[in-house]
Amino acid sequence: RGSLSGVSMCAHAPVSLHLAGMSSEPEAFSVHINGQVMTQGGHKVSSVGLISGSSATASLVAPYAGRWLLSSKTMKHIEAGLHGFVDVQKCDNFEEPSRRMTIAQKRQSNEWIYYIAAEEIIWNFSPNLQDHVDADFQRQYLTKSPTHIGAKYKKAVYTLYTNASFT
């Protein structure tokens, strides 16, 4: 449920958030709304920072309807359950703005298509181990045991392919 209820707004409507850091002791706060980008002081931000006794204003235009988590990214606040939800609804009087590209933007636009797969491989952490490396070191760090993964282990790597066949 969270510690804040009843916050709602219309999608595509400009909203001003007036935030205050309220605490009886010095501490830092952050205000973050998942999936939203706020503007503060002319900068796009994902969270707004506050300290005790301070205030800040940020603006936002929520583009997507849904229920979004409003929270502090400070661990103490997360553990204390300091969070709430912002309900963004589609409203008849606020429509998604139509966006048109200029001729210059169309000329400069490119579409890049990448074919990337995550693949499992057996990774050898020390393929070129020199003979002069201490045997105790090898035994301690490179030998597989119930408490160590050894020198070879399964790992996921990203592989770039040239086409959709992924071959």
Tell me the layout of helices and strands.
Layout: E1 4-10, E2 14-20, E3 28-33, E4 38-40, E5 43-45, E6 47-51, E7 55-61, E8 66-71, H1 75-79, E9 83-89, H2 103-108, E10 115-124, H3 135-142, E11 152-161
Parallel strand pairs: 1-9
Antiparallel strand pairs: 2-7, 3-6, 3-8, 4-5, 4-7, 8-9, 10-11
Can you put this structure into words, describing what you see?
- InterPro entries: Cupredoxin (IPR008972).
- It comes from Nothobranchius rachovii.
- This is Coagulation factor V.
- The chain is mainly beta and 167 residues long.
- The chain has helices at 75-79, 103-108, 135-142, and strands spanning 4-10, 14-20, 28-33, 38-40, 43-45, 47-51, 55-61, 66-71, 83-89, 115-124, 152-161.
- The chain folds into 2 domains: 4-89, Sandwich (Immunoglobulin-like), CATH 2.60.40; 115-161, no CATH class.
- The protein has 3 helices and 11 strands, in the order E-E-E-E-E-E-E-E-H-E-H-E-H-E.
- The strands form 3 sheets. A 5-stranded mixed beta sheet has the order 1-9-8-3-6, with no helix packed on it.
- Strand 4 and strand 5 (43-45) form a beta hairpin.
